[in-house]
Amino acid sequence: MPTILRKLMKDQRGSLPQMTWTIGAAVVTALALIGAMVYFPDIVESFFRAATDWIRAQFGF
Known about the structure:
This protein is mostly helical. The protein has helices at 2-10, 16-39, 41-59.
């Protein structure tokens, strides 16, 4: 097990600022979606329905 962990650590690429930006962007996006769901549930539901209907139509589901 420790050899697998060492190999994974050696294969890592990227930098701390890149990781911080990625995690921060994901957190901000999640908070924005949760906030929209709390304050505008009807709008979010209709938008989600329209988006999923469009995706289904585009891919033929």
